[in-house]
Amino acid sequence: MMEQTDAVAALSALAHAGRLEVFRLLVKAGHAGMAAGKIAEATGTLPNTLSAGLNILTHAGLIHSRREGRSVIYSADFKAMSGLLTFLMEDCCSGEPAICGPVADLARAGTCAAEGCA
Amino acid sequence: MMEQTDAVAALSALAHAGRLEVFRLLVKAGHAGMAAGKIAEATGTLPNTLSAGLNILTHAGLIHSRREGRSVIYSADFKAMSGLLTFLMEDCCSGEPAICGPVADLARAGTCAAEGCA
DNA sequence: CAATTATTTCTATATTTCTCGAATTATCGA
DNA sequence: TCGATAATTCGAGAAATATAGAAATAATTG
To answer: Which of A17, A23, B16, B89 would bridge with B107, disulfide CB 3.0–4.6 Å?
Structure first.
């Protein structure tokens, strides 16, 4: 169960054009992930600025990294992403399911049960 | 279709413990909404500080207000909420649906089609 | 119209966050 | 070990954000 503090950290991390772009890039990249250098290249960010952003996303639990030779590969944490969405939708339309049925369905579906979902 | 600029505004608005609490309170309140004073009471915020927060959430498109007598009633914008979730999940696991099936379902469901959904 | 209640705006200060240049650490190949 | 490549850390200045006191606006009641 995600707490408000964690949610604020995750939302803060994503509330920045550059970091949001990076995160969505990693979401698309899936488990394969992307080397920091490739991300910098794709987004046109200076390496040190990007590194600061990756650090913030990592501490927010939204991404994680592994070293491969000289490169550090970053990838999205789908479980954390799912947890954040679930938190945001919690108690949505409580008592009035007619208001936002599809969103409520989303909340129920918002657990990442698939095998490979890290 | 939500753009990155809008998403960053919405995420920034939510990336604050007090505002996130207010938003979730309004999500629970549904269409009935809540008067500013009641929100201040429920969250223990000074009226002026709360007003600044409500203003930020409003400009981000996440909530809207209507006047009723002396009170101003605030309520969540479920359509905007849904749009933000959809944006965050866009292209999730593209090419590898096995990674995060439930989340992908969420993305497809993330449009608020219900009648009363403002 | 005066008093009361509800909320917002104005203004200033304190704090946090962002970005970049420079220096540092880590890994690999010759 | 030396040089090259990949990424991170440090430090400082600039910019954005948060909070609160005081004043102002809006709507209702006597």
So the answer is: B89
User: CATH classification of A1-118, choosing from 1.10.287.110, 3.30.1490.20, 1.10.10.10, 3.40.50.2300?
Assistant: 1.10.10.10
Q: Quick check: B4 CB within 7 A of strand C?
A: no
Counting Cα atoms < 13 Å in the Cβ hemisphere of B98 gives 3
Q: Which single residue has its CA nearest the C1' atom of nucleotide D27?
A: B70
Span B59-100, pLDDT tens digits: 999 999 999 999 999 999 998 998 898 888 877 766 665 555
Torsion of CA A88, B30, B69, B67, to 10 degrees: 50
Q: Is the Cβ pair A99, B91 closer than 8 Å?
A: no
